[in-house]
Amino acid sequence: MTDQVELRKKRAGEKAVEWIEDGMTIGLGSGSTVYWTIKKLGELVNKGMKIKGVPSSIRTEGWANQFGVPLTDFQQGTELDLAIDGADEVDPSFHLIKGGGGSLVREKIVNAASKNLIIVVDESKVVSNLGEFGVPIEVVPFGWEVTERRISQMGCRSIQLRKSENEIYVSNNGNYILDCHFGYIENAMNLHAQLKQVVGVVETGLFIGMTDHVIVGKDNGVQVLRK
Ligand SMILES: O=C[C@H](O)[C@H](O)[C@H](O)COP(=O)(O)O
């Protein structure tokens, strides 16, 4: 990754803390852009801000611990005021493809539990149509081959079982991920609904109608997109 891309991610990630207020409970998304949010949030906590975070991945939990961001979980009747998360693609309706880092299920649970969702991205993630980036689909390992065949019959142009260093990638939930290219997606909500009907599918990386604001990191600053 170039320094310029990293700078754009940093700008977007850091900007998001401006929406965080004392006393809030925050959903902490996953990925290299949210890393900057968590780092900045750690600075604010060290200066006395009182917040708690609910992490959406084991990696995020590690960063929160590293930067001194206090954590909580859903067991304690937690209500999330705000969630901040990254994305792999954002379209003009703020529909998203997420899960490039494999955290889609926990991210969707955290984001759906939050009153508001802010997405932080570098400008390369803002697209006119979803679909260039394959849709990650988390599936139960048992019978994944059958699940894959069913999804292939749904207009999927290519489908790959995600691997990491030649081993099958296993999500934080113990599941596999299929990366599915459908070409440009005309109706993301329909596609998501159809995929969810397939036995063995746990969740899709299509996040529809959840996002309130998008913060875009650019070469010359940040842009805040509002609905
Ligand atoms: O599973 C990973 C998440 O959906 C990430 O939020 C997404 O992949 C964007 O990550 P990054 O900010 O590293 O591009």
From TrEMBL:
Pfam families: Rib_5-P_isom_A. Substrate binds at S30, G31, S32, T33, D85, G86, A87, D88, K98, G99, G100, G101, K125. One of its GO terms (molecular function) is ribose-5-phosphate isomerase activity. The active site is at E107. GO terms for biological process: D-ribose metabolic process; pentose-phosphate shunt, non-oxidative branch. Keywords: Isomerase. The keyword Isomerase applies. Pathway: Carbohydrate degradation; pentose phosphate pathway; D-ribose 5-phosphate from D-ribulose 5-phosphate (non-oxidative stage): step 1/1. It catalyses: aldehydo-D-ribose 5-phosphate = D-ribulose 5-phosphate. Its EC number is 5.3.1.6. GO terms for cellular component: cytosol. CDD domains: RPI_A. InterPro entries: NagB/RpiA_transferase-like, Ribose5P_isomerase_typA_subgr, Ribose5P_isomerase_type_A. The keyword Isomerase applies. Homodimer. Catalyzes the reversible conversion of ribose-5-phosphate to ribulose 5-phosphate. Belongs to the ribose 5-phosphate isomerase family. This is Ribose-5-phosphate isomerase A. It comes from Halalkalibacter okhensis.
